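A note from the maintainers: we've had questions about how concatenated examples are separated. There is no special marker in the raw files; a new sequence line simply starts the next protein. For clarity in this README we add a label.
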Amino acid sequence: MKKFSWLILIIVLLTACNGGSSTPAPVDTGPRPTPTVEVVPPPSPTPSPDAYPVAPAPTPLPDNYPPPPTPAPPTSPYPTGEFVWLLLPVGTQGEETKTYDDLQTAVQALASAGVAVKTAGMTDLVVCAAVGCPTSAHYRVEIDVAGLETAAALGWVEE
């Protein structure tokens, strides 16, 4: 207990002495001039040789300047005599019936309707995986644009 008392006494003395310095700080009582600061604008940045050029200001158009012509809308995305690719799903998911038994039957159905087929083949597309969605396998044919309406009536759609 005696050692503990000495420790407390040393702590109290050090705290009371405040580190051994007891002289107060001098008080400034004299007049002080108001400092003034000269405001200098920052220098304008000089662009480096690698910097983008400054965009020019747009030139205003005169009052009598004619408006730009409006282009005519295209009548067909395919010019006459060109070919277009069409797609038809092989079947529907969840149903066992197919649109056509095979690619040859699909091409023959178009030919019997008067649509000339240039190229025919099969393709796989990304489709939803749910009952009622088309299968990923699709018939793909290239026909003349003239037969587009007839093929659309048979269920074919443009690719």
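[label: protein 2]
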Amino acid sequence: MNRFIHVLGVVFVANTLLVTAALSKPAGRPKGTGSDCWLLTQLNPNSPYSHSQIALIGKEGIVISADDVKLFVPAPFKDVGIYNSSQKQYFIGPLKTWFGKYGALPFSKTHKYMAKGVRGKIGNVEADQYFMMQGQGKDARKLREVWATDVIEAERPVKEILQHLCGLPEGSVDGVPLRVMRLEGGRKEVLLNTLSVKRIPTPKGAFTQPSNYRRVESEITLMLNYGKQSALKDLLEGTTNSRK
């Protein structure tokens, strides 16, 4: 239950045409395009599928895709939708309610805090290192190592949503999280890792939510109908299960 949305809780695989087109584009802003978005290719070691996910970030919204499950947060970022292409079912509800159930608790309620580390590169972009801490002085413990980038141009609400989907309270880091690792007993467990960040022309229909799906009343119904696979549950509950 503590893998990603471990899809990111909302890790993912987009369709072949989208990935092929996106990866053929060089990093940087494409010339002559009226609309573009950011494509992140990511790994989720806990995913029961290919251990990969695709995240698209644009003015039109956020889309995270893993196998036959897609998470949509369309602009103006008030609602969240989960679509299961194998079951042809979907759930849509207020984002605020979603994060009330699955989002990261504020540090004020957990006594955790962030300590900034060094600056380096994750994938192909500059990023800052952070450590999620608990305790003070000799009792201070590192709980998570997080890398986030300010290279991705996105509105503040978008960055905060992506932070929540990675199990981080909004505003805990500057920018979009690219790597999240759990630190425990001297070991590092990778929860999310970004392999590449590219700015590409927005693929046609990339942010359009599917039609002809049967709506279910709650995300729990989708989870129950998804069988024994855990990807959807992880997607719904966030990458790092930061409430624990």
